[in-house]
Amino acid sequence: MTAPQDSKYQKMTTRLLPAEPDAIQQTAVLLQQGHLVVFPTDTVYGVGVHAWNDTAIRQLYAVKQRPLNKGIPILLADHADLDKVAAAIPPLARQHIAQFWPGPLTIIVPKHPDLPPSISPNDGIALRIPDNQAARALIRAAGGALATSSANLSDQPPARSGQEALAALQGLVSVVLDDGPSPGDRPSTIISYLGPEPVIVREGPIPAQALLPQNQSRQSGS
User: Fold this and answer.
1) What is the CATH number of the domain that holds 163?
2) Is 119 within the bounds of a domain?
3) Is the pLDDT of residue 2 over 50?
4) pLDDT tens digits, one per residue of 51-90
5) Assuming Cys at both sites, which of 76, 79, 129, 143 could form a disulfide with 101, CB separation 3.0 to 4.6 Å?
6) Does residue 3 fall inside a structural domain?
């Protein structure tokens, strides 16, 4: 799959290092202005936009060529931001949050009504706090929540380094915040709490048996 050729998506891409003076703040300002940026996480590199910017979220779908029926997860900086993006957190979800956040666990819970409708096609929203200091510093500086997908075009392998992300999205994002190779090699585990019982949507670094009793562990199509 090739990158979009429409000129409205083409831009100069700057590579910054998180340790550089003002790199985090510069990138956060661009996010607040509606730009797409790439940044490291504890799993694979992500490409994100401000979580309340509907136009930027729609651009993220278009740039990634992501189907509109696949929602965009939100990455948070701090637990205190949960109530801004979630309408409710079931007790088991809170237990898993306490046990596995920050870390490679994404939870799907009822979304807050203030979120842009484009962020997901249903009443759920996928959330997590990454275990990466540069990512959390950026998310915090940008307002606490970023709508984020893996830094690649849809159906292509996720980027595991800033260089891989730059190769995949050169000219389509404003900044690649390059923190070197990702410590993880797989996207996060996803668990949904929207139904009567929790369901493993995608198994990743955290195995299903660590989240659910063996007789409840079920996996849906991802």
Assistant:
1) 3.90.870.10
2) yes
3) no
4) 999 999 999 999 999 999 999 999 999 999 999 999 999 9
5) 129
6) no
Which of 115, 118, 33 lies closest to 82, judged by CA?
115
Q: From residue 144, how far is each of 53, 57, 62, 67, 89 by CA, in Å?
A: 13, 16, 24, 26, 18
In a domain, 192, yes or no: no
Query: Does 98 fall in a domain?
Result: yes
Closest CA to 182 of 85, 57, 42, 26: 42
Asked if residue 134 lies in contact with residue 177, where contact means CB atoms within 8 angstroms, the answer is: yes
Q: Judge contact between 175 and 37, C-beta under 8 A.
A: yes
The domain tally of the chain equals: 1
Structural domain of 20: 10-185
Is the bond leading into 102 cis (omega within 30 degrees of zero)?
Answer: yes
Tens of pLDDT, residue by residue over 100-134, are 999 999 999 999 999 999 999 999 999 999 999 99
Residue 183 predicted with pLDDT over 80: yes
Give the three-class secondary structure for 84.
Answer: helix
Q: Are 186 and 177 in contact (CB under 8 A)?
A: no
